[in-house]
Task: structure prediction
Amino acid sequence: MRFRDSDYEPLKAPRKMAAKDTVLDEQWLPSSRRKVPPVVQVEPPTTKADSLALNTNSNLPLENWSSQNGHAITFAVLFLYTLIAYFRPYELWQGLAWTRSLPYWIALAMLLVFIPSQFIAEGTLTARPKEVNLVLLLGLIALLSIPQAINLDIAWDVFYSLYSKTIIVFIVLVNSLRTERRLRTMILLALVTGGIMSTTALIDYSAGRTGVYVERAIVSISNMFGEPNSLAMHLVTMIPIALAMTIGSSNVLKKLLYLGGSLAMIAGVFATFSRGGFLGLMAVGLVLAWKLGRKNRFAVVGLVSIAVIAAMLFAPGGYGTRVSSIINLGDSSASARQALLTRSIWVALTSPFLGVGIGNLRIVLIHDQVSHNSYTQVGGDMGLIALTLYLMFLIIPYRRLAAIERETLKEEHHSRYYYLAIGLQASLVGYMVSSFFLSVAYEWYGYFLVAYAVCLRRLYQQHKTTLATLPSA
Result:
């Protein structure tokens, strides 16, 4: 029996760094800031002392990133795996039922390509930024929690069939996203997916095709988007990236596409009637307004105006009543969630070391329900140490993105890093808020965002190193 501890049924040889991977991509720059400094092919610093000298004024910690630019095949396989995981073609068309086992074989091929490629590129199984270390520690605690779990079968199934896959994909992402093109490709895939899923959910919702979720928008895929709250979670994490790209892009057509996708996804969040999605969307809006307002007052006023208009146009009837139930404990759903939260906190506090075993929290909750909270899910399943590591895993990349934002605030040629750093910060905040109402700690929502943040930090530090070694004019 396969078990899911969540609210739904889830799922080269080394070469020198090419100039095209370090040259500034003007499409990320605002139209008034397309003055591109010359880029010269240079070798990265060869000693730790050289690196320290180049990072003296940086707010970011020194990290020993490899300058090798491998994993091209790994990335191609990873992209295909993610595409199939998002859309699950065997559920959309009966004629593609033969693809049901395809994700397994693609994942196996990805590992078979990744492992030798990683050893060729770096001589180690994985790079070791702090986020990777934290994930490995979480995986170790999850394993240690299995022998003392209430139900060993459930614990092993959740770890083997769900969490271990998330950890593996996260490590592959961190090591294979080595160029700006690859990072943009993965983000674009997530954005396009969000736009398509939101649009199809809105069409079905307007036609009354809502399935078992009465009057709540869903999509017909039972993996990441087949439950309204899960769909809202993905949309909330994609909206700030799309809005940041709307401001940061200098291409008018791209601006319109990003803005149109943002509006479609905002409408999708409303149509899901997700309370966690609503709170996540509000948090995202506050972060974007606060950070973008420092140098884009006009743009922020425009975005806020668009958001208000969108809320007035897209919010379906009864939405206000649904949102008000967040603080109205007379609502049966809200009171049930509060009871589950209280009980899950108690379990976490009374089983502080290894919890009750990964995936086992629901056994000791009310009516065998999940906690509907990612933080108590981790704390109850694996203990308070695991919860601390999980919080660090989300907070550390946010703080380092904030450091990139501060360093690039007044640097015109760093604008592409500035806007994406802000967008990813808002996405992480949206995830942290929305996941307070969903048991998704072992799913890849937050892990993909953290991997994107690690990749952006890597690219930024390598770019700074390149600029620092250029001869002064």
In short: Residues 1-34, 36-54 have pLDDT under 50 and may be disordered. The longest helix spans residues 180-206. Residues 82 and 324 are 36 Å apart (CA to CA).
